[in-house]
From TrEMBL, chains A, B:
GO terms for molecular function: hydrolase activity. Keywords: Hydrolase. PANTHER family: ACETYL-COA HYDROLASE. Residues 327-471 form the Acetyl-CoA hydrolase/transferase C-terminal domain. It comes from Kingella pumchi. This is Acetyl-CoA hydrolase/transferase family protein. Pfam families: AcetylCoA_hyd_C, AcetylCoA_hydro. Belongs to the acetyl-CoA hydrolase/transferase family. Coiled coil: none annotated. Residues 15-185 form the Acetyl-CoA hydrolase/transferase N-terminal domain. It comes from the Bacteria.
């Protein structure tokens, strides 16, 4: 592997190599900073810590120092974590999953705007988030003619590089130099009224350049790093996940039999996490071949489908692997380079493409209600967990949209099927199939009351079915409208009971 | 004007001319029937009444008779009205606005699935609503070679004609014969994995044929009619509507000044109703020229912008005029034919085009909450009003998405700004600007608590501001999460209070 210094092949840029502390000098209190990174991949490893040190020094001197930080999606402890612990973030968008950042948000110490991941780039370019003072972007290298080799996440980098007034690059020697050529950077979406169609008609096509580009004069510093991504380990699929996966795969078989899905299905999107990973692992032993992936984050399960030959190609905006999977990826990168396409998240999550390609979207949820509304973000209605991410981009525009969850949490004290969700991220209009380990509810073409009966009987945990039936029965008899019967005084009472007693069950 | 019989120019089809009662014989109990019509335009005028008579006869004989009815959007009394009064509809989708149909839905006598208007066609074609037995479609005429001239609404007709097993046409002599050439029928969206880009880059372009087409062998009956559309009268813009319109137009000016909107704005979408109409009327005297319309339903206000030369062209899926405006339309149809483009609703409302073109979406709401969630469909959480229509298609994908409403209803007894909406149609992620006669709240780039303060101070009626501030203050102090502070026991209490006392105000 080459060193980070060797990867700065553009002669003119070599003079801009500096320490992280020097680079952080470009970042002042109150600035809006665009940071690279998507699901623990491709985030800057050194500059955030240097910013943190500046913040700590300022705070110790009784001076204010906070930045407004906008990323692709989640980063890791070396970025969100260190900055949040130093109380150095005043505003955060569009997605996070760091424990300290989350606590800051829920304590009211940092403002957070939870944004659809396909919306953040165009809205920043349109000026809706104000100026972007500095972009800090990790790359795998800089070519002799000044083109940037993307690292394991493309995310929002195209827009940050275009829109920020100044650019700091981190060149990370840990990122495989052979990533060169894997990305497909289409950087011409622009703003209306001058937009053109995105000319992708298959998930595996390429329409852009393998390189990120920027005005080299905006680069104020280049920082060399040699540090690995977050590389979280996945749990082996457990019985719960396997059960959910099996139900989805059975459903696929049924849809193929009914002529509503092609034999090789349609391009698969899979949310982040163990259940999503289990669904993909389950496809390994399924009757489906020649699969195609079109997803935000490509994780272990999809990698293994490609390596086994079950999946022909996959498009993503980030590669987020466990340490073992990263090894398999690096070992096979020459074969994988043409089969995996890394795109900007504005392309990956674009409604135009999700609708046209007919994606099968599968995302995790916190809870669903009896009418099929889904909460993906809030704990008990008030506390932010992570964010909506791309789940709304995919659910809203997919050919089929699934939401999955175990039917209970906290040892049974929380039902994931409730009378009314405590926060709405995906409305009844956008949710087609709910799946728990108890069963699957196919909500397509059904009225709210038809959906309620199905969800209660098929998806709810047996411990909660009587309680849900009782709510629904009494709501139907309460004298309100019978389109979406509710008891307004009890709709959120399950959450209140949990807050007060630690259990949603009526004793 | 030609008679309806003269408008059936295809010789082979003349033999299929029959009475509405004869045509209704093809429609049996339990069938799924695709009906044309969008916002009181282009719906069949005769066959629904004939179906009603069949239903009444069956019911009188103690036999079941109900159909499953899927339309473009709302129809009128001669369609939804007569069928609902005869209790002849078991299932209705995707949108309705008829008083009797609404009562049937809210009494639990008819199942209703409220669907995004861009979703209904692809989901029907994909088989998610089962087979479509018969389509009943109004046209303005049939050419000698068997092509169909669309009437004042294209709506879902492309898909109904393609997908239904049998077709009944109503040829309506009241529809202007000079409509020939106004429509742009692109009928090749199809199903994944074989979809192509929609090659529209400007709202005024044409990419299809002026005619609807179908397999002529599927036509089982042609019914001749001579009846006008619903043609509801608009109220003259009142002070309330003018005030809301003025605030939106000021906001446009500000955005142009800030460089975030072009001088001629971006293509305008406007929801149905008096406030929407007032916004368009307000643009007549605004400094903006060379406007472009891209909307679902083109109503009086947009017609007059075109007639005055303020607007260059407008794309819609239906033309729904007051009687006076219809006269102006017919008087000027030769000049309007190239400036107005009637498209299938699947094209008009397509996320691909709404996103690409950068639409400014303006839609009415029933209520919004302090965090920017919007309810467009439900009264007090349980009763269906009309449906989400295309508001979700536009809000979700527009460059700017506005929701407008007077700040109070029922003489002040209902606040349109509430702690939590009683039904969620548009989530906090999809709502950019709220406008009431009190003021405008620009929610872009803001966290939930920042939004709450703005919405309470700018949009709520003064009678409710203290009550909202009190809720928000106590929610912040309640010990829950401070990302989206709520009091779970009170979040829906304003609606409950209205149900119990007829007033949301705390006495």
């Amino acid at each position: 592997m080459s060193t980070a210094a060797e990867r700065v092949q553009h002669e003119g840029l070599r003079g801009k190599i500096m320490s992280a502390a020097q680079a952080a000098e470009f970042i002042a209190d109150g600035m809006t900073v665009g940071i690279s990174g998507f699901t623990g991949a491709g985030y800057p490893k050194a500059v955030p810590t240097a910013i943190t040190e500046k913040a700590q020094a300022a705070h110790a001197a009784g001076k204010p120092y906070k930045i407004r930080m906008i990323t692709g999606a989640s980063t890791a402890d070396e970025c969100d974590g260190v900055l949040a612990r130093a109380n150095a973030i005043s505003f955060r968008s569009p997605f996070q999953s760091d424990p300290t950042m989350r606590n800051q948000i829920n304590a009211g110490d940092a403002a957070y705007m939870d944004v659809h991941l396909s919306h953040i780039e165009p809205q920043v370019r349109a000026g809706f988030f104000g100026d972007m003072d500095v972009a800090v972007v990790e790359v795998a290298g800089i070519t002799a003619d000044g083109k940037l080799i993307p690292s394991l996440a493309v995310g929002t980098n195209v827009t940050w590089l275009q829109y920020a007034k100044k650019i700091i690059l981190e060149v990370n020697a840990q990122q495989n130099a052979k990533l060169e050529g894997m990305a497909d950077i289409y950087d011409s979406i622009g703003l209306p009224p001058n937009r053109q169609p995105l000319m992708l008609t298959e998930a595996g096509q390429r329409i852009g350049s393998p390189y990120l580009a920027c005005d080299l004069d905006k680069i104020v510093g280049i920082v060399l790093t040699d540090a690995s991504d977050r590389n979280s380990k996945f749990a082996e699929p457990d019985e719960m996940s396997k059960s959910i996966a099996a139900k989805i795969i059975d459903f696929f078989s049924h849809e193929v039999k009914m002529g509503r899905l092609p034999k090789n299905l349609l391009p698969l999107q899979s949310g982040v996490g163990n259940v999503a990973n289990a669904v993909l692992a389950g496809l390994q032993d399924s009757p489906f071949n020649d699969l195609v992936g079109y997803t935000e984050v490509l994780q272990d399960g999809m990698l293994d489908l490609i390596l086994s030959g079950k999946m022909l190609s996959a498009s993503a905006t980030a590669l987020s692997f466990s340490p073992d999977a990263l090894q398999r990826f690096n070992d096979n990168i020459d074969a994988l380079r043409s089969k995996i396409i890394l795109r900007p998240q504005e392309v990956t999550n674009n409604p135009e493409l999700i609708r046209r390609l007919g994606i099968i979207g599968m995302n995790a949820m916190i809870e669903a209600d009896i009418y099929g509304n889904v909460n993906s973000t809030h704990i008990m209605g008030t506390k932010m967990m992570n964010g909506i991410g791309g789940s709304g981009d995919f659910a809203r525009n997919s050919f089929l949209s699934f939401f999955v969850s175990p039917s209970v949490a906290k040892g049974g004290a929380i039902s994931c099927i409730v009378p009314m969700v405590s926060h709405h991220d995906h409305t009844e209009h956008d949710v087609m199939v709910l799946v728990t380990e108890q069963g699957l509810a196919d909500l397509r073409g059904k009225s709210p009351r038809e959906r309620a009966r199905l969800i209660i009987e098929n998806c709810a945990h047996p411990d909660y079915r009587d309680q849900l039936r009782d709510y629904f029965d009494r709501a139907e008899k309460s004298g309100g409208g019978l389109h979406t019967p509710h008891l307004l005084t009890e709709a959120l009472s399950w959450h209140q009971r949990f807050v007060e007693t630690g259990d949603m069950r009526v004793k």
